């Protein structure tokens, strides 16, 4: 449908450059009005006798159609709010979000619509429906229950009011973190203050200064800057100031104490979640959250976390004792403070393994990493991922769009890559949905993903040049030369060089993207990642991380950005030897986060309030070996659980890591079986095995939520997951 409002245009891809804040309200109003009219038509038809002959199409598919029209408009708006925020867009987003939340709440409590869906489930010919169609009905009925469809007044209205208030508060929470991140910086004019920071890190700080038309260097709270300072800066006072500013964002402490404070929002969010859960008959918000997860009870989750704590904490304590001794004896740090940990750890790693992260980064230029990552996916799943140089509208010059085709050349999906840090962009890394796969009649809407990271951008070799350059060139298009390393770059440009952690991050997010893009389910609500149990949704992402440690995979992309030389064997051996360096400390940190989150939601007592900091301290007493200063305010920027969908679900990362480690074990077993076969150019004899990849795609990636995740895992692995797989992956198995 052609229209002057780009959000109402049903084009295959959004027209990002044409979207204005003023378009949001009118588009959402029009779509919601049409949506309501469509729902009214469904319920009116359901009230008539006889009912429509094809109930599933008349009720379930029609809801999918209506929902997809809203998603096509809202997805680009939500994404722009995260990656290209402005005052005007933020206001338009918040106003529209309130309307959508209110509409969704009313929809979830629409008893006539619920009756129509129940009629589909009860219809005699429902037995002829396919497995995905049954799953869609089951999920819809469950979601009605979780939306309070059975509630009577005044609980019914109160539940809707809570949903609206939570939507507002979680958005405010996220905005406060973004604003607090952008609000602090420190201008440095004496390069001696940056001693220890490698040139790549200084180049990032120089670029931040240039963006503000300043000389020298600018330390900000963007991830590349924080990482460079805390890991490498010899000046301890600089590390302390950056840690202080970063770890007190949006709180009552730090350089902007009280200005963006999320304290009150956290209290309200937790109280409202608890109240909503109890209205539905659950004991608490943690119990409610498990209605859509693999784990069945809070006790099961807590037992899972505490079992891992018991195994990991002694190892973590030994690692910390060693680090403290090294810091004291070799670095002259009598007391190891929180702002010393990353710095001392990097020094210890260098001393033990002669593994210099900067030396390693030279072998991970982003162009080559992308090429290799796409190559791994191609060999595993028989697909081709390639950038499109023309005809795709993007929101920033650094954004690249890639098409995904099957082995026969048929277009099956697409993905936007937005990988560099910049102002107005939310920190961290994530994958989100732009378009769902949806078959409606003879037409198929293909799945499109957003893949977002915050890496340091490329840098010009000379001061005469500009700043970061197009990611499209990094992915392999336009005005570039291809070096011996297989990467693509301009001759006067140093490409974005990734740490090995960065490499794992992009593989992780691409794993989510593959889960979305390789779905064969034609019903959006249960296709791709949609509807998959939250504690299983991280399986495909964490699974992909394993290839970052595999020589066969690394040979596809680990090449020096300048010379094109492959990653030397001795450097790879040192990298592999260091793989489990401080694994216990890392695992305990994740367990601390997971336990804190779950206790916050499981033990909430309205009479006592949220007790956020007290709960954090209790979780640390159980799980942590390193205790930060009392002024540290990590929870105030913990967007995962307060605005990112992981409420009472952060444990899911570790739960899914059991699944992913065990799934990757199937590839390792296959490699062991075929080790006698000579490995030629990455084909056969290694973990990148096409036959095993095809099974993983067919049994897990492509089926979405059309069946329970455990059933999909067993269909691939031939058995239930083995918990010790996680400890083995961390090098902690007995």
In short:
This protein has 734 residues and is α+β, with helices and mostly antiparallel strands. It is 53% helix and 8% strand. 47% of the residues are buried.
Subunit arrangement of the protein: single chain
C-alpha geometry: globular
Q: From the coordinates shown, what is the CATH architecture of the largest domain?
A: Orthogonal Bundle
Estimate percent helicity: 40-55%
Output the radius of gyration.
26 Å
Strand content is 5-15%
Placed side by side, the strands forming the largest sheet appear as 3-4-5-9-6
* Overall tally of structural domains: 4
Mean pLDDT: 92
Q: Which structural category do the helix and sheet elements fall into?
A: alpha+beta
Distance between the termini: 62 Å
Kindly describe this structure.
The protein has 27 helices and 13 strands. The chain is an alpha+beta fold. The chain folds into four domains: 6-150, Up-down Bundle (Glutathione S-transferase Yfyf (Class Pi), Chain A, domain 2); 184-246, no CATH class; 263-353 and 582-650, Neurolysin, domain 3 (Orthogonal Bundle), CATH 1.10.1370.10; 361-566, Neurolysin, domain 3, CATH 1.10.1370.40. Strands 3-4-5-9-6 form a five-stranded mixed beta sheet, sandwiched between helices. Strand 7 (438-440) and strand 8 (443-445) form a beta hairpin. Helix 12 (298-331) packs across helix 13. The longest helix has 34 residues, at 298-331. The protein is globular.
């Amino acid at each position: 449908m052609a229209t002057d409002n780009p959000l109402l245009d049903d084009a295959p891809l959004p027209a990002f450059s044409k979207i204005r804040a003023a378009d949001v309200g009118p588009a959402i109003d029009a779509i919601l009005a049409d949506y309501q009219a469509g729902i009214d038509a469904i319920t009116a038809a359901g009230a008539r006798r006889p009912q429509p002959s094809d109930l599933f199409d008349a009720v379930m598919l029609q809801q999918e159609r209506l929902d997809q029209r809203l998603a096509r408009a809202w997805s680009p708006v939500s994404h722009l709010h995260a990656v290209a925020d402005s005052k005007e867009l933020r206001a338009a987003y918040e106003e529209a979000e309130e309307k959508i939340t209110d509409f969704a709440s009313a929809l979830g409590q629409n008893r006539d619509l619920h009756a129509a869906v129940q009629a589909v489930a009860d219809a005699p010919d429902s037995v002829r429906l396919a497995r995905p169609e049954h799953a869609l009905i089951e999920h819809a009925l469950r979601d009605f229950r979780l939306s309070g469809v059975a509630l009577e007044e005044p609980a019914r209205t109160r539940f809707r009011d809570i949903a609206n208030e939570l939507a507002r508060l979680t958005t405010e929470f996220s905005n406060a973190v973004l604003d607090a991140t952008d609000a602090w910086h420190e201008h440095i004019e004496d390069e001696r203050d940056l001693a220890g920071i490698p040139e790549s890190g200084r180049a990032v700080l120089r670029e931040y200064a240039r963006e503000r038309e300043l000389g020298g260097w600018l330390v900000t709270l963007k991830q590349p800057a924080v990482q460079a300072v805390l890991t490498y800066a010899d000046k301890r006072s600089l590390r302390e100031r950056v840690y202080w500013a970063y770890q007190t964002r949006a709180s009552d402490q730090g350089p902007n104490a009280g200005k963006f404070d999320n304290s009150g929002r956290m209290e309200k969010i937790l109280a409202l979640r608890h109240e909503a859960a109890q209205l539905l008959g659950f004991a608490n918000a943690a119990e409610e959250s498990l209605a859509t997860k693999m784990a069945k009870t809070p006790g099961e989750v807590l037992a899972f976390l505490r079992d891992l704590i018991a195994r990991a904490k002694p190892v973590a304590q030994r690692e910390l004792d060693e680090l403290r001794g090294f810091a004291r004896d070799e670095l002259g740090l009598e007391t190891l403070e929180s702002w010393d940990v990353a710095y001392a750890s990097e020094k210890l790693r260098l001393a033990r393994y002669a593994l210099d992260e900067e030396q390693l980064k030279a072998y991970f230029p982003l162009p080559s990493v992308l090429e290799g990552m796409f190559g791994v996916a191609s060999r595993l799943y028989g697909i081709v991922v390639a950038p499109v140089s023309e005809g795709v509208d993007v929101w920033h010059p650094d954004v690249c769009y890639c098409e995904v085709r099957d082995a026969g050349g048929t277009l099956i999906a697409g993905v936007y890559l937005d990988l560099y840090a910049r102002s107005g962009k939310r920190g961290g890394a994530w994958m989100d949905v732009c378009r769902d796969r949806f078959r409606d009649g003879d037409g198929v809407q293909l799945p499109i993903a957003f893949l977002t990271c915050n890496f340091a951008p490329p840098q010009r070799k000379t001061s005469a040049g500009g700043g970061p350059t197009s990611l499209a060139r990094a992915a392999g298009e336009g005005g570039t030369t291809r070096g011996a390393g297989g990467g693509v770059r301009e001759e006067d440009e140093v490409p974005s060089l990734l740490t090995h952690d960065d490499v794992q991050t992009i593989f992780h997010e691409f794993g989510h993207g593959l889960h979305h893009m390789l779905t064969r389910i034609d019903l959006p609500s249960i296709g791709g990642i949609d509807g998959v149990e939250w504690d299983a949704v991280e399986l495909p992402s964490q699974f992909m991380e394993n290839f970052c440690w595999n020589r066969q995979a690394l040979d596809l992309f680990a090449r020096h950005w300048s010379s094109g030389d492959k990653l030397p064997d001795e450097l790879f051996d040192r990298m592999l030897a260091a793989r489990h360096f401080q694994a216990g400390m890392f695992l305990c940190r994740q367990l601390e986060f997971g336990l804190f989150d779950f206790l916050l939601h499981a033990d909430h007592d309205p009479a006592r309030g949220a007790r956020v900091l007290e709960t954090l301290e209790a979780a640390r007493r159980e799980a942590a070996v390193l205790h930060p200063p009392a002024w540290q305010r990590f929870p105030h920027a913990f967007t995962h659980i307060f605005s990112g969908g992981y409420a009472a679900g952060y444990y899911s990362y570790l739960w899914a890591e059991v699944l992913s480690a065990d799934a990757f074990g199937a590839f390792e077993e296959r490699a062991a079986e075929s080790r006698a076969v000579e490995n030629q150019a990455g084909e056969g004899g290694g973990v990148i095995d096409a036959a095993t990849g095809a099974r993983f795609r067919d049994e897990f990636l492509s089926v979405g939520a059309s069946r329970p995740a455990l059933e999909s895992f067993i269909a691939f692995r031939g058995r239930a997951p083995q918990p010790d797989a996680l400890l083995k992956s961390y090098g902690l198995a007995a």
